[in-house]
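Example record

The entry below shows one chain as it appears in the dataset: sequence first, then structure tokens.
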Amino acid sequence: MMLYYTSLPSCLLLATFLFLFFSHGDSHFSTLQLQTPPPSTSPGWDFEVGFSGKSLVEGPFSAPIETSSVVLAAQRTRRKDPLDGFKRYTGGWNISERHYWASVGFTAVPLFAIAAIWFLGCGLCLLLICICHFCCQRQGYGYSRTAYVLSLIFLVLFSITTMIGCVVLYTGQKKFHDSSTSTLEYVVNQADMTVGQLRNASDYLAAAKQLGVDQVYLPANIQTDIDQIGGKLNSSANTLAQQTTENSDDIRDLLDSVRLALIIIAAIMLVLTFLGFLFSMFGMQLLVYILVITGWILVAGTLILCGTFLLLHNVAADTCIAMDEWVQNPTAHTALDEILPCVDSATAQETMLRSKEVTAQLVNLINEVITNVSNINFAANFVPMYFNQSGPLVPLLCNPFSPDLTDRACTAGEVNLNNATAVWGSYVCQVSPTGICTTTGRLTPTFYSQMITGVSLSNGLYNYAPVLVQLQDCTFVRETFSDIYRDHCPGLRRYGRWIYIGLVMVSTSVMLSLVFWVIYGRERRHRVYTKESMAESAQGTEGEKDIS
């Protein structure tokens, strides 16, 4: 597997989570692909890697293997592409394809258009109102009770709708923040676990290289290969750990910034609506007009934010579908292969083969010492092989692999990697200062210590080899994507939709509230003027009657 990292724009949270840790330019972990040595060479690990991104991959033991291509999220991404004459986009999910971004961006065009129309139209209306107010002669006021009542009803209705929208927006952003933080923590934990596995594997290899039992060591060519592998494992682990820390901090800052921005928007819109309603009720026209101008700009900005969030919501939903389809089609060539260049299964199995060879050679090294030193009763003058071996023969260590490196069952009298340490403990003798056994036994404490170290290393390599293969052939990534799709995608999509709905409700209701602030203020002013006119007219009529 190749672990990459990147920082995607804005709050494309899901895509950021997925490819922050699994896609980052030139990968260091890619160097862990094995290159099969010629059959004539001695066993060893020669690591070279690369992925052409083509649908033709080279198997180590066979002719080129052709793989089919799969378009990810093909049905969901069939949208109009403005860069291709508004034809339907058919390339599927592909974050490196500009036509994909154009088609998904086109879904937010209606909201951007509404924002532009609102900004220009409302601005023009405000300009005309100002011109008429200062330049035109005032006409007589007319008053309609129906218009007054309807404007009041709609003003109350849209004010309530704004409050509901703010509640939905606040609740949505809280749940979205919790869900996205949980997803981030899961990905970071997966990355940390991978770092630990890489470092453990490197430590086991380094220790295996230094292992010697009674001055018997691994062959020189394998020691050289272990040095190369260990260096690349450590480099990959260090790069992964460093970038995990840096990028996870960046994403947490981004999440906190998005949350703060949405909270501020909800609070400002709520306060704006309350003050606008209050000022309209008390006829404070100057303050109402100030709020109208403020709201005019805020509504335009909220509509643009709403469109942006819709775009990112669609990309995140596309990514979830693409992940699931990629997991379901492990052998197909997809757009994800350009980001996660997994090696073919044959090459991954070659990695397992080389790890089996080292494990088998470690077991053989230990058994060679047991057979040729511990289980032979040497004469006292046969130094350094003699240390007064006596007692029952030490059982051999079970080699988990046959000479052809297929799995092998232990035979009677062998001890396996899990219980060898306990069984061999009963064969340890007490020694004199010169290293000669003074009690019954065939293993000196020094031999025993070296042997259990070898068992521990063999067991570690035996257990970590499948892990390295899973990292190479992207099994680990597929499992991670599967978990994210199943456990995290539903929450991210659901609460992202809540935020989008909340933004739509808030921007629309505030937009209409601004209109009815003006209409209600006008009707209220006309109502007051009409009542005053009627009162003056009534007083004038009574005065004329008194004079007559």
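Notes for this example: The longest strand covers residues 56-57. Confidence is low (pLDDT under 50) at residues 1-66.
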